[in-house]
Amino acid sequence: MTSNATRVLVLNSGSSSLKYQLLDMADGARLAAGLVERIGEETSRLAHTPLASGGAKREHTGPIADHDAALQAVAAELAADGLGLDSPELAAIGHRVVHGGSEFTEPTLITDEVVAEIERLIPVAPLHNPANITGIRTARALRPDLPQVAVFDTAFHTTMPESAARYAIDTETADAHMIRRYGFHGTSHAYVSRETAKLLGKAPEEVNVIVLHLGNGASASAVQGGRCVDTSMGLTPLEGLVMGTRSGDLDPAVLLHLSRNAGMSVDEIDSLLNKKSGLIGLCGDNDMREIRRRIDEGDERAALAFDIYVHRLKKYIGAYYAVLGKVDAVAFTAGVGENAAPVREAAVAGLEELGLVVDAGLNEIRSGEPRLISPEYARVAVAVVPTDEELEIATQAYALVSS
């Protein structure tokens, strides 16, 4: 890698989408960002923003056949801004990979063997890993000479002790089918826990943080001295908190009951729990802004959905307080965590004996910066820390190729 190669292209490949950002790790600046969606359809759309020049967003619609065509289109947009993928300043391409199992504990240079191992993990991530692999293969074909790095959602959680990672089922069955708690949103939890320590003026090794990543998908983690010791998502992203369309924690016998008594197939139950549950199942909406609007108008169904959401959230705060023993901060992040003041207020209400208090005025302030929303006298800091998963992926990828 040449000394002036400081740029990292971050790719997040979905089944029919490709999100990307180009960052310069010399100063952390974002040079470009965009999204290709509805890949494989006649109505594909590419939205590209040249951040370095401050130019206007450019949008294109029309058929984009596959991920190869999508990345070629992205490369053309970048080239139009003088940021082409053939630039000697490009140091690496960083790929978000959802599931790395127990094998991948850190960012990893992509080889044929690494791709094969990610493929082997498809049974525990059937919705995500195939799309991630498609993005990797496309990018490697386009730039086979460039280091490509996989950054895994699960990696940050591999520090969990076996007492937290193991389910209480027959160990031979569990091991044969890779059944254990893996956790997800790891790049977000890693970034936010570290930024929270910085906000407190301390090193990550000096603080214990409960991170609440609340978006359409939601997860909590207990981070002790910079290392994850427990997290709410499990074998899949279905376990844990109430989410936009996912149920979160559920008695496993519910699945048996639906199969035996409702005659539902495995696929129907899967769809129910992942796409028709959570907030949308409870009240028909998975947008917290709309739910709050309905509550203000007296909608009882929306109010109950909100209460169930907060009740589960509060349970996890208490549980992870017990796991950590000592808590320095609770950090809210992601779309709901960063923007929904009523959620933050309700989540810590009644936890004053645990040292958790929110200042109403500070909580209502909207900002894109990390900030404390607890009063100075609070024993435990309550923080809002905007997540930056793309920067975290770029940072990890650049550190690996630089070394």
Give a nutshell description of this structure:
This protein is α/β, with parallel strands linked by helices and 403 residues long. It is 38% helix and 19% strand.
Describe this structure in words.
The protein has helices at residues 67-80, 112-120, 129-142, 162-165, 171-176, 186-199, 253-261, 266-275, 278-283, 288-296, 300-324, 334-339, 341-348, 360-364, 389-402, and strands at residues 7-13, 17-24, 29-37, 45-49, 58-61, 90-97, 108-109, 148-152, 208-214, 218-224, 227-231, 329-333, 371-372, 381-384. It is α/β, with parallel strands linked by helices and 403 residues long. A hairpin with a 3-residue loop joins strand 1 and strand 2 (17-24). The longest helix has 25 residues, at 300-324. The model has no long low-confidence stretch (mean pLDDT 94).
Gyration radius from CA atoms, angstroms: 22 Å
Low-confidence stretches: none
Secondary-structure-based class equals alpha/beta
Helix content: 25-40%
Shape: globular
Strand share of the residues? 15-25%
Number of helices: 15
Assembly type of the chains comes to single chain
Query: Could you give a short account of the major beta sheet?
Result: 8 strands, mixed
Mean pLDDT score: 94
The number of E-state strands comes to 14
First and last CA, distance = 10 Å
The SSE string, one letter per element, is EEEEEHEEHHEHHHEEEHHHHHEHHHEEH
- Physical arrangement of strands within the biggest beta sheet: 5-4-3-2-1-6-8-7
